[in-house]
Amino acid sequence: DHERFTGIFVMGDFQGELTPFEKLPQATDASVRWHMTYERSVLGDQSLRFGRPDEASYEGEGRVFGRATTSLAPLPTVTHSTLWFWLWLETEETAGYDILSVYLRVNGVESLIWDSDSIAGTTHGNWELIEVPVVLEEAVVDGQLIFEFDSVDGIIDFFEGVYIDHLTLSTGCCVNAEDC
Fold this sequence. Notes:
Layout: E1 8-12, E2 33-37, E3 47-51, E4 65-72, E5 81-90, E6 99-106, E7 109-115, E8 128-134, E9 143-150, E10 161-171
Antiparallel strand pairs: 1-10, 2-3, 3-10, 4-9, 5-8, 5-10, 6-7, 6-9
């Protein structure tokens, strides 16, 4: 029906491939990076993770940092959009450290739209659906959605890290993420 019509700009479930993420720039320590994993998932059997593929931590040689990016299709100006993603997060829980940030880059300008300090750096051992309102004030000619993890320092990094699953960026016509 017309009240539930939606435009989906990005959607990914991370089942068997990195879609919609096209490139995963290496972290500062190559042993700690964004990768696909079977360790945890909210739906299906895989998710996207930042951490060490060989152990349940993101501890590396000093500060660890990495970005997972996806391109957005050209979009007209849309005033009501929402990013939904499932998050499982275990970090240091000290404000300003070990931060997952989400950026939207539109036509060369990068803007922070959400960070994990807003949930005190943890989902308390559970998957949590994160909902982020997105306002596009200009048409998107060249756009990217960016997930960034930054430990900021090289200490207290023995936590399990970040898992992201089932991601959707759509117009505001959806009542909730499952409707999109």
